[in-house]
Write the structure tokens for this entry.
Amino acid sequence: MKKGVCGRVALTALCFCLMFSVYAGNQYKDVYGSGKSKIVLATGSPGELGLLDALAKAFNKKYDTKVCWIKAGTGASLKLLKERKADLIMVHAPDAEKKAVKEGWAAKRTLIGSNEFYIVGPKDDPAGISNAKSAADAYTKIAEKKAPFISRNDNSGTNKKELAIWKKTGIKPKGQWYITTNDFMMASLKKANDVKGYFMTDSSTWVAGKKSLPNLKILYRGDPVLVNTYHALCLPGKSGKNQYAAKFIDFLASDEAQSIIKNYGKSTYGEAMYNDADYAKKYVH
């Protein structure tokens, strides 16, 4: 082979290797552990806020495993499981989860804990939602005032909950006041802070980020519809690598993992970021 051709072949091979390396490196947001057996887990805020890291470390001590985290909201996580690109997911969209189990491509649905949604907004509360009778009433007041409202618009569990509340109001939000981010929770919270708008955040992310959000405060909370329950699901079957996904779900339901969940955040923020499954089960229907 001529020298020039050899050079071009070598360059092409190098480019391919680099492209593969970039893809492989970017496929996972993080990898916890270095064990022989790999579990691919998709979730959003529990990974973003560090809870998954704490749980994975405790699990890996028991097994020769590593947990590879794909950062994805609930809708995307469900899609990854359906396409068998994830072995295990931690999500918060009960109706979609039940449908997945019924259709047969998800299994072992297990309650693992909860947090709640807060509707936060500018401190002067121009829409007056602090006096709202319900989450739907708060949304109605925001729409009537055409006050800036941030929507993730990403098919996440948060977005699904938001849309369900809008459906209760009978209002289809649109216009310049309705601002979409197509982004995760913390980024959307920061957007709300920047524009002094309203946003429905989960309590865990609020605890982690509130010190850097000077323009916002909690204005409405307490409607039972705002309780946010988390479940874990995995691929059907326990053979091969899937056995560790199933074991991880069993671990999540164990006393050890439940203690991690209900105490997570206390040492850093002075308050817990999640409730355990025992607390959450009263809100499961």
User: Anything to note?
Assistant: The radius of gyration is 21 Å. The mean pLDDT is 91.
